[in-house]
Amino acid sequence: MKTIQASWILSFIVLGLLSGVLGGWIRLGFVAIPLGAAAAHHGLLMVGCFLGALISLERAMVMKNKYGLAVPLSSALSMFFLLGGWPILGAFLLLAASLGLVVLMYFQTLKVPEIYTYIIALGAAAWMLGNFAYIYSDFVPMATGWWMAFLLFTILGERMELNKFLPTPVWAKYVFYAGLAVFGLGLLLPFHQWGNTVLGAALLILSIWLVRFDMARFAAKKSGQFRYIGIGLLTGYFWLALNGWILGWMEGHSFYYDLYLHTFFLGFTFSMIWAHAPIIFPAVFRIKADVFHPVLWWGWGIFQISLAARVASSWAGWTSWRYFFGMVNGFSILALFLSMGLIVYFRWKVNASIITVDLAGKAKIIRSEEKMVSSK
Fold this sequence. Notes:
With 376 residues, this protein is mostly helical. Helices cover 84% and strands 0% of the residues. The chain has helices at residues 3-28, 36-40, 42-62, 70-84, 87-111, 115-137, 140-162, 170-188, 191-213, 216-219, 225-249, 256-285, 296-316, 319-375.
């Protein structure tokens, strides 16, 4: 499997992110680029064309399955149908992609029969159910809970995998499994009749558990990349706790839907992306380049501050400030991804040039030794 294939797919995923961010800006009131389809399908673009495609690409690369690359490609290409006026075809392409991810995770569970693999597989199934719920109802809120489960189970399954060597008490593991089970129960209950409260309680339990038992608390005390990852993870767990509180106990707020969506999909999910990027990106693309650089702290800080200000503005009902900080937050997302891409590119080029110089030097030594031998 060649890296160039994944790189081409990644370019479509980036387009999905750009269109999703643009759709979010338009929904806030930005009218300079009047692409109504991006606003109408903002959730599908962000969850399916970007996050779903990115996670599927990671899974396919980890499993070293070149046919599995069709899953993220299908997810990313659905963007063109969503934006081109064929949203049903785009939604069905996302459903096919999520079914493909379920198949990938089935084979992964056979290869690695561990509890964390099963949890990630449940996340893939939740994405499929969410896409089906959207097609069946043509109503995004019907799918939102399942999409949240997709990202929650995927992220927490990966956290379990990375924490498997930590000495976690047996009772704590059962609390973790119980939190996931309670969240699953909340999905099956009517949302406005205890369902949202059960979901919120589960997220509060899981966020407290992560702060206490995840490796983030150790990493945050170190320096450099480890501190960046640790603080990033702990910040994500804060957003998860806030999301649980909003989801369960702020239903009467006028911006309730906006608050619980963005504290989860932006606050929690993107905080996890920023924290995992230095580990995941080089491993996925099989390149020896360090993603972390201290400059990332600036972009990360702007993202967190602008998101907190946007959430506070929604909470207070300040629509003008909500628009302003929402725009800044979108720019910070794009800037962070661009920064990571430039860091990887230049460090990869430097490493490649070092290897080339090293090989050239070795070739000169070999040629000189050959001349010495032939002259004798």
